[in-house]
Structure prediction request, 257 residues.
Amino acid sequence: MKRLAVLSLLLALAGCVPVAQPEPPKIELLSFELVQLDPFAGAADFNLRLKLTNPNGFPLPLQESTLTAELAGAGFGMNLFPLDLAAGASRETTARLSVPVVQGASALAVLVSGKPTRFRLMGAMNARIGPAVIPIGPFTFVDREVSVGQLFRLPTLRLGEFRLEGLTLRASLEVQNPSPIGYSLLGPLRLSIGGRSVAEARFNMRVAPAGVSRGEVAFGLTGFPGVGAVVVEANLVASIPGILQSPVAQILQGGLR
Prediction:
């Protein structure tokens, strides 16, 4: 009984010993990539590849943590998943950063243009030390410039066969977007038949990122057509308000049935 009492006392005293604050892990940003910018979903998604190093002489079991990722002065929440770091060791991990289009418009405009902008990763990381989960920080873990390169590429427009319905010519229009950036494609389309301009239509289509979008265009005839090729002159703009304005000009050939 006496030995049991002494052991219980020692365990109680051990539980009162304060937990030492570990040194924060070092974080290196290895890559910063735009997955997609979808203004219709309201967000731009980025993949971050990170290298974390434990500077302590003991293991550092990191728990799920929410940090602040700052782009061009605007802050957004980013989650880091649990990661066990051995003493003095490094490991790589990935994280997904979702930036709302409205709140992040200024930063996204800079990145889409191909220019660099300042990126900071800040906050506190949670680590399990013994029986307790303690926050380490807040600290600024990353402070550097990032860029994603020139990702916008011109779409390919394909015009289907025209069909005449009364005084209206209708045709399908397919847009192949090779970019991970979605946008509205809008502007005038001018129709010529046999070298004569006979109609103009306003075009407005939502173009999804990295995919094919389809729509229809309708021309109300205002002139007498000639005999010959059916040609549509497209003077459009790929637009995300406050982020992207890029001209898209193409000459399209169509057939009349």
